[in-house]
Amino acid sequence: MITKHERVEVKYDFMHITPPMKAPDVVGKSAVGSAKGWVPVNKETLQHVKYKNVWSLGDVAAVPMGKTGGSARKQYKVVVDNIIASMQGKSLASKYDGYTVCPLITNIGTVMLAEFNWASKPAGSGKNAASFPLDPTQERWIWWLLKVYALKPMTIHGMLSGRA
Ligand SMILES: Cc1cc2nc3c(=O)[nH]c(=O)nc-3n(C[C@H](O)[C@H](O)[C@H](O)COP(=O)(O)OP(=O)(O)OC[C@H]3O[C@@H](n4cnc5c(N)ncnc54)[C@H](O)[C@@H]3O)c2cc1C
Questions:
Q1: Model-level pTM?
Q2: Domain chopping of the chain, boundaries
Q3: Ligand 1 near 72 CB (within 6 A)
């Protein structure tokens, strides 16, 4: 196999640029961190691959795609369920499925709600992670209202107390 790099021009109508990311060194370079700077966990159970009494979720966890508040919202229930199961000597039945959600602001007043998990297929071609029967590739004012008015109370009153 020969690897080659060349500049190409590609037409686009939407560009989303992601900077390089890593966990803070205090975590990534600690004993529970990995060579790549994340906390290595089983991506479904969120249990540390080496230390069975260590669990990780949120941005620092070495989980594919799951780097949003919406992912953390699904992950903390898995971690709580599995810590309790582990303490009771039961199998780790609760699994994270890669659920990720990100409101992409496309204009003042419109947002695209990108919602997907590891099993997601392109919209319209089968199973995807959308919570509502609306095409996630379309920008909508209703998601603007969600982003501007609903997410903060949901985070403060729902997520921080583990109810949402
Ligand atoms: C611009 C932007 C917009 C986003 N918009 C969305 C969105 O609309 N929806 C969505 O779902 N997600 C969104 N996200 C992603 C979301 O914010 C993160 O995925 C989420 O906050 C991760 O939560 P966390 O608890 O893992 O980490 P964090 O929220 O980063 O919490 C980590 C905490 O640890 C603290 N900390 C760091 N080092 C130390 C230390 N040495 N000692 C003590 N404390 C320390 C930090 O100050 C921080 O408070 C956005 C992210 C960005 C940057």
A1: 0.87
A2: 35-97, 99-164
A3: yes
* Ligand 1 atom index nearest CA of 101: 11
| Amino acid, res. 78 | V
Burial 74-102 (b: 16+ CB within 10 A, else e): bbbebbebbbeebeeeeebebebebbbbb
Other CB atoms within 10 A of residue 13 CB: 4
| Ligand 1 atom, smallest distance to 68 CA | 19
Alpha helices in the chain (DSSP H): 25-28, 69-87, 141-145, 151-153
Here the tokens at position 122 are: 């392109």
Q: How far is CA 136 from the centre of its chain?
A: 16
Q: How confident is the model at residue 35 (pLDDT cuts 50, 70, 90)?
A: confident
Cβ pair 49, 43 in contact under 8 A: no
